[in-house]
Design goal:
Elements (H helix, E strand, L loop, with lengths): L4 H18 L6 H18 L2 H17 L4 H19 L19
Helix pairs in contact: 1-2, 1-4, 2-3, 3-4
């Protein structure tokens, strides 16, 4: 089985989102904003536009409202977006190598 870097990035993003959700109430607003910024940054580099946009919107909401209950809704939306990327990531199988019979050379 080959290592798929896209799936590894998506797994890292999901781990980060779950980490923020699991630690809510235990993290400071600054720490949550830093984590969300990291999610946005990784998504931008990887080209996951929807995830980047949602993380950016969550950053804005956090800066305006702090650790409001709306944060959980955005984290759920981020999970959905990451899940959508996981299912849409196409893994192209490597076609089997078929040996060809050597054709006789005609002079």
């Amino acid at each position: 089985m080959r290592h798929d870097p896209i799936q590894a990035i998506l797994a890292d993003l999901m781990r980060r989102v779950d980490g923020v959700a699991d630690q809510r109430g235990h993290l400071s607003a600054a720490r949550v904003q830093d984590e969300v910024d990291q999610i946005r940054h990784i998504a931008r580099i990887a080209g996951f536009d929807r995830i980047e946009a949602l993380a950016g919107t969550l950053e804005t909401a956090l800066s305006l409202q702090g650790l409001a209950p709306i944060m959980l809704s955005y984290l759920d939306l981020l999970r959905d977006a990451i899940g959508d990327e996981r299912t849409s990531a196409v893994i192209l199988p490597v076609p089997p190598r078929i040996p060809t019979a050597a054709s006789p050379l005609h002079a």
